[in-house]
Amino acid sequence: MPSSNPEKEVVPEIKKSNKKGKRKRTESNWIDNKRKVLVNSGQEYRSRDGSVRSKKVLGPVCPETCKLKCYEKFDLETRTKIFTDFWKLADHRKQWDYVNKFTSKVSKVRCTTETPSSRQHNVHYFLPLYTDSNSNTPERVRVCQRTFLGTLSITGRIVRTAHTKLSASGTTLPDNRGKQPNIPKINDKTMVHSVCDHVASLQDALARAKNINTNKVTLDKKLTIENMFSMYLDWDQLSNYSNKAQTCREYKHIVNKYMLIERY
Ligand SMILES: [Zn+2]
């Protein structure tokens, strides 16, 4: 690469500052772009602070203790091809798309145990496997996190970034369709009132008097949300409300959002 350091170049006196500034900008854009290409294609590069970042290499596969036995499904040759294909994309967006295509966010909690604040996700990881040599479409085979990250030689941070980009853009890739957690949207006031009034009615007279005009309820600790929901469906006052919770999930969601339950 020929030296084009602007400091060393003879710049004409006329319009000196203007020209020099423009040249410097072009130069630094060019260096940034070149670095970007190197970073995105996994090659060695010199970071802005001058330190050298070594090129990406294929990471290790999981140990034999792995329940998914990734090491049996993906040999070194296959993993090398996946690694090479990934870094050949040489573009952040395409790499995020790849990560989103081969990961699925799965809701960790179930109706019976969750509270809205405790909702969490597991990530399921997959890698492409060409099982049929005549087919151009790979099978999506489940692997553990370690094999996924190691084979692509990426960190968990990139997976999280890819997921953020996916939800920010609002597009959903076919592989993730239907796998996003389905959090009920409750914005019907009548429905909320019907549930809150019902939960309040489950208290004994003393507790009801104590908690009146608050969102607190005092309930027997043996009363589960499923019991409460089935009592709600049989509640003689329910017909007074034009809208009601249809599922235990909706019922529970409202209880968790609007009520503070004390147990005795
Ligand atoms: Zn594994």
UniProtKB/TrEMBL annotation:
Stated name of the protein? Uncharacterized protein
Query: Where do the segments described as Disordered lie?
Result: 1-31
Biased composition of type Basic and acidic residues is found at 1-16
**Organism domain of life:** Eukaryota
